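Regression test case RT-17, inverse folding.

Input:
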């Protein structure tokens, strides 16, 4: 692996300094070839890994695989700025995760090795990876990195929207950590704690989104308003669930609203930053504003149909499965059916000593003695 990286660097140096004209295709081709071989080596490297080591390497393979896809597309679009950004982010994530992997596998910060059989350790490996992705993304999408205040007098806060995004990501990560602790670290699972943390996180998320949309207008304001509507409804459902955690209708409503929120967030990214038509939406065009709401309604219908399709399939599958299982049990019952005679005999043996103990008492209190 090290030899591949060194050779890749040598090709870059030769293309930039030794050739009469720089050959970008040669650089990209060598980079792609190196990462193809690197991916194959890493896949074979993890064949005998288990537990924490396997989880660490799987996440690293995921980053290398995504980077390989980006580099392959760059062979046909070498001047595309978005691909450069994705390549830079993935290389930074890979580098930072390699450093973190060294600490996890060989030099744990706590001084104690990670436990391969502990589900909490396996889950926190993935949590740390998500933190790496989040920090690299936030720090590299802003020129000069994300800072809180400037150095002028009086100091002013900077990058308010980016800090709000970072706070939202942190809320969701902490919410997942509470779920992991409740299900795996506490002596008994505390559903009220999970629901309370979920409701509290969405209360804060709603406040952040309301303030996040204050400086918006036109299409952006419409998109955020519809998202705020979904979060508000989800918050009401989660609040009611604190008093009725076992209510099936609330589970269905919560699932549907989370589906709508997730799908609408993806759609919002395409509307605001990557329109499918290639042209930005017009804030002054009433048709564009109306079609934002139309697309939202389509999302609601599609998500509801998806939810009911999954529920219907699961219901009929379980019904058919359990009916076939009962038929199999009924066919096997004559061969395994046990008669109740041993239990009846055991009850008779227990009742006989009780009757024998009660017989002298009845004899003492007979009518002849009373006479």
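Golden output:
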């Amino acid at each position: 692996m090290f030899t591949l990286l060194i050779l890749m660097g040598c090709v870059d140096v030769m293309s930039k300094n030794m050739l009469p004209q720089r050959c970008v295709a040669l650089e990209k081709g060598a980079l792609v070839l190196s990462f193809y071989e690197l991916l194959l080596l890493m896949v074979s490297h993890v064949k005998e890994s288990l537990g924490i080591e396997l989880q660490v390497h799987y996440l690293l393979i995921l980053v290398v695989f995504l980077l390989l896809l980006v580099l392959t597309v760059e062979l046909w679009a070498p001047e595309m700025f978005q691909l450069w950004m994705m390549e830079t982010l993935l290389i930074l994530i890979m580098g930072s995760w390699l450093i973190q992997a060294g600490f996890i596998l060989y030099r744990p910060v706590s001084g104690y090795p990670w436990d391969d059989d502990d589900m909490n350790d396996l889950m926190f490996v993935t949590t740390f990876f998500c933190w790496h992705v989040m920090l690299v993304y936030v720090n590299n999408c802003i020129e000069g990195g994300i800072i809180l205040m400037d150095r002028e007098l009086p100091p002013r806060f900077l990058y308010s929207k980016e800090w709000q995004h970072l706070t939202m990501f942190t809320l969701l990560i902490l919410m997942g950590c509470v779920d992991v602790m409740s299900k795996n670290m506490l002596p008994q699972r505390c559903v009220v704690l999970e629901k309370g943390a979920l409701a509290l996180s969405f209360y804060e998320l709603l406040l952040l989104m309301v303030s996040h949309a204050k400086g918006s207008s036109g299409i952006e304001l419409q998109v955020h308003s519809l998202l705020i509507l979904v979060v508000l409804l989800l918050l009401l459902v989660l609040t009611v669930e604190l008093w009725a955690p076992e209510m099936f209708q609330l589970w269905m409503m919560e699932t549907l609203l989370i589906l709508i929120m997730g799908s609408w967030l993806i759609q919002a990214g395409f509307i605001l930053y990557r329109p499918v038509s290639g042209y930005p939406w017009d804030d002054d065009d009433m048709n564009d504003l109306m079609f934002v709401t139309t697309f939202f309604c389509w999302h609601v219908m599609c998500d509801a149909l998806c939810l009911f399709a999954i529920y219907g399939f699961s219901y009929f599958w379980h019904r058919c499965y359990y009916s076939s299982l009962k038929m199999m049990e009924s066919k096997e019952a004559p061969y395994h059916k046990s008669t109740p005679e041993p239990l009846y005999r055991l009850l008779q043996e227990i009742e006989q000593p009780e009757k024998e103990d009660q017989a002298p008492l009845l004899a003492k209190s007979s009518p002849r003695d009373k006479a």
